[in-house]
Structure formats: C-alpha cells, structure tokens
Specification:
The protein is mainly beta. It has one helix at residues 55-61; strands spanning 18-22, 25-27, 44-48, 51-53, 70-72, 74-77. The chain is built from one helix and six strands. It is found in: Nucleus.
Length: 80
C-alpha cells in the first residue's frame, strides 16, 4: 500500500496498519461514520454529496427522491 495514502474523510495521511476502502477512497477506520448520527459504519454505508450515511439516516433525509446506493466497506492491510 502506498505510504502516502490520504484519508478521504479527514484528509490526513493514513499511517495505520489497516485502512478502509469506501466508495473508491481510502479512510481511517475511525473516520468511517454516519454524517448525521455519528455511528460507526462497519459493513455498509450510503453516499450522498461526498458524505457517508447509515441506511436509516440516508432514507430519513429525502425518502421519496433517493435510490439506494449501498457501498461495501472493505478493510485492507497497509504494508509499512
């Protein structure tokens, strides 16, 4: 893994041993949280306006106009 990986959430360098790949970006584990309620997102998330949401909050915002866009969160090993 590239040593200069930058978190898509906080925009800081990722130096952790593990990182998460979400919606094509790399994230610190602690940064993968719902933008509305702050709950940790551990297996899936929903994306709107470059923000991550849990399923409940994603649909609570505009339930009549949204289509499901679930993304899988995958953990990757970062070689140091």
């Amino acid at each position: 893994m590239d040593q200069s990986a930058v978190c898509a959430g906080c925009h800081r360098n990722i130096t952790d041993r593990f990182l998460l790949r979400v919606t094509g970006g790399l994230w610190h584990e602690e940064c993968v949280r719902c933008a509305a309620c702050g709950d940790a997102l551990t297996s899936s998330c929903f994306l709107r306006d470059s923000k991550l949401y849990c399923k409940r909050d994603y649909y609570d915002q505009e339930p009549h106009t949204l289509q499901a866009a679930a993304h899988t969160i995958s953990e990757q090993f970062s070689a140091k």
